[in-house]
């Protein structure tokens, strides 16, 4: 069988279940670390429950994803997950979902591994949301999860410090409410509200424009150009205020 015939045959099979993005609202990709519980608790020597080096590597991974070929309007990260909000003008790979998923997961995995010095893999999923209000609610959901994760992580390592095994500490936490976990921390002199905001609320990244002043040797005069750079915000509000924040910096429907 000729190459052309094989090419047509198997390209058709590859495309049989091809899913394409509809681009009718906002598109979000959420990336999660695969097997990061084992990686962070057993394989890496990290400060518990939150490690500043890991945090910086996640920031580097986010920065790479924002500049790897997709038009990213806003990134939000907490723990080992990253959510990317794309410009509504982004139409990469003709909207082929499998290409978005594979490329983004690959880019995140490569960047994280390079900066951490250990292999770390991410999976990826895509979600399309109809309007800005729903999109703001999505990010509020992820931020609420960040708070729960921080609370559970600090409780877990307190119990481990009391010589409970990993299984025993996990079992103990499974039956506790948020209020009971807060009491557990308070009994150890830890106020969850006094912990760094990036642990409790995550951080955002977005492109910001700035004016760069230079010198034009041809005209022998000052030259001004508009550039853009990534801005990291680790002092996020929460609740309704976070929704307002998102509307202000990312969800005003302006195409850039």
Counting helices, strands and paired strands, the structural category is alpha+beta
| CATH homology-level superfamily | tRNA(His) guanylyltransferase (Thg1)
Overall 3D form: globular
- Helix percent band: 40-55%
The overall pLDDT, averaged over residues, is 91
Number of helices: 9
By CATH, the architecture is named 2-Layer Sandwich
Radius of gyration: 22 Å
Number of strands: 6
Largest sheet features:
6 strands, antiparallel
List the quaternary state of the chains: single chain
Taking the alpha carbons of the first and last residues, their distance comes to: 49 Å
Explain the overall architecture:
It is a single chain. With 256 residues, the chain is an alpha+beta fold. It is built from nine helices and six strands; from the N terminus they run H-E-H-H-E-E-H-E-H-H-H-H-E-E-H. 47% of the residues lie in helices and 23% in strands. It has a six-stranded antiparallel sheet, sandwiched between helices. Strand 2 and strand 3 (81-86) form a beta hairpin. The protein is globular, with a radius of gyration of 22 Å. The chain starts with a helix and ends in a 7-residue tail after the last helix. The model has no long low-confidence stretch (mean pLDDT 91).
């Amino acid at each position: 069988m000729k190459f052309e015939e094989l090419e047509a045959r198997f390209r058709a099979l590859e495309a049989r279940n091809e899913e394409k993005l509809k681009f009718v609202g906002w598109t979000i990709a959420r990336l999660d670390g695969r097997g990061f519980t084992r990686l962070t608790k057993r394989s890496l020597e990290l400060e518990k429950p939150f490690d500043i080096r890991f945090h910086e590597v996640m920031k580097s991974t986010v920065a790479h994803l924002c500049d790897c070929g997709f038009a990213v309007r806003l990134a939000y990260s907490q723990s080992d997950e990253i959510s990317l909000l794309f410009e509504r003008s982004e139409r990469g790979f003709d909207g082929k979902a499998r290409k978005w998923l594979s490329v983004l997961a690959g880019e995140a995995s490569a960047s994280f591994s390079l900066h951490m010095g250990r292999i770390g893999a991410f999976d990826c999923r895509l979600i399309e949301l109809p309007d800005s209000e729903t999109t703001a609610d999505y990010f509020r959901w992820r931020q609420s999860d960040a708070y729960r994760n921080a609370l559970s992580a600090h409780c877990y390592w307190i119990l481990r410090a009391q010589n409970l095994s990993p299984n025993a500490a996990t079992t103990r936490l499974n039956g506790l409410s948020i209020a009971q976990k807060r009491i557990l921390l308070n009994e150890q002199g830890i106020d969850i509200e006094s912990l760094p905001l990036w642990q409790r609320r995550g951080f955002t990244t977005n492109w910001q424009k700035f004016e760069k002043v230079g010198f034009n040797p041809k005209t022998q005069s000052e030259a001004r150009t508009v550039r853009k750079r990534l801005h990291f915000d680790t002092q996020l509000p929460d609740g309704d205020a976070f929704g307002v924040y998102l509307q202000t910096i990312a969800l005003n429907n302006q195409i850039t």
